[in-house]
Amino acid sequence: MAFDAQTTRDAPLSDAALAQLFTEARTRNGWTDRPVPEALLRSLYDLTKFGPTAVNNTPARFVFVTSPEAKARLVPLMAEGNQAKTAQAPVTVIIGQDLDFPDHLPKLFPHAPGAKDWFADEAMRRESAFRNASLQGGYFMIAARALGLDVGPMSGFDPAGVKAEFFAGTNVEPNFIVNLGYGNDDNLFPRSPRFTFEEASQVL
Amino acid sequence: MAFDAQTTRDAPLSDAALAQLFTEARTRNGWTDRPVPEALLRSLYDLTKFGPTAVNNTPARFVFVTSPEAKARLVPLMAEGNQAKTAQAPVTVIIGQDLDFPDHLPKLFPHAPGAKDWFADEAMRRESAFRNASLQGGYFMIAARALGLDVGPMSGFDPAGVKAEFFAGTNVEPNFIVNLGYGNDDNLFPRSPRFTFEEASQVL
User: Fold this and answer.
1) Residue B3's closest CA among A149, A181, A23, A30?
2) Does B1 sit within 8 Å of A128, measured CB to CB?
3) Residues of B in contact with A146 (CB under 8 A)
């Protein structure tokens, strides 16, 4: 479907949709055994990929860990407090960034044939990969909720171990890891406080 | 409103909602003169703030640049190709990360009184601030679309200049900058190619 410009896309979604995406959504620490079909993972990717990134560099790479064999490789690399829930979740997703993203810019950003050369500086390349893969991680989690899934993101794991086990021989580095499925209320934290608008924002 | 656990939140949003958030949404380079009321900016923050971050550290800070005076301070710090559209957009948002986020963890993450001390290492603190503020930037842009707004994110600006002009005397650093409003089709790129599922993902 396509929108008529400035007619149908300028209205807010329903309160129920906003609740599903943001206001009532919660990080889940317990998971039902309801499976997540691969078709749904593909739909999730097909939403995520459209989120904006700098020069469309889309550096995020996604490893969907679903089989018992793959889970057995990942779980020991998680921080102790993250192991049981990672073992329980039907899917655990390793989100990484490909530091070789400039190699793909002739395909991804055909408007500017020289874009590949804008990232010759390694620190700048690393910063852009990290920023944009993190943005894509944000899109990914909201897209998962938009598809009715729950998420449980985690930074507590052994990055060098995950790199060696899942990204050997590539220039992809792990960024963060997300449990994915249909959550339950086990070990659900009370909602933590948030900053007020004035504490985190200003209008100039 | 609240969901009954595992009953109503497990269904996908409508195709129209998914189109507004992802599949038909486009980065905008031209803007109508329709204003964005401050109440809508506050609603946008009140969605964004609920997105998940590590230990709820919510390091992102948002400067909503709306007045002609504030725009005049920002526009010269943008890359040349970003100046005209930044001048035209009704709102331009500077998204930064507060490297002093650990100071707020006793309030933001009361479950773990020692969380403040988990970020004593400066490199780790900086990495967590950058990752989580970028995630929040992703939530912010999808939340904007959920409220009917368009976004135009940009990395092309003078970071040291923006830091000095808008975050002097703080430990906040700029991450990226977003034009916000109701876009039109001026200077709209053709949709760039995206990686296929197989190119960016694997299922193990």
Assistant:
1) A23
2) no
3) 12-13, 17-18, 21-22
Give me A35's structure tokens: 């499976």
- The confidence score (pLDDT) of residue B7 equals 47
C-alpha dist (Å) from residue B39 to A19, A26, A158, A203, B152:
19, 25, 43, 11, 20
Whole-number mean pLDDT of chain B?
95
Q: What's the rounded Cα separation, in Å, for the pair A45 and B203?
A: 12
Cβ–Cβ < 8 Å for A201, B62:
yes
CA–CA gap between residue B187 and residue A20 (Å, rounded): 34
Those residues whose C-beta lies under 8 Å from the C-beta of residue B141, and which sit 6 or more positions away, are A51, A52, A135, B151, B153, B178
- Amino acid identity for residue A110 in this structure: P
> How close B12 comes to chain A (CA, Å)?
4
The minimum CA-CA distance between B58 and chain A, rounded to whole Å, is 8
Single-letter code of the amino acid located at A66: T
Mean pLDDT of chain A: 95
Q: What is the pLDDT of residue B8?
A: 64
Kindly provide the ipTM of the predicted complex, given to two decimals: 0.95
SS3 B35: coil
| Full-model pTM | 0.95
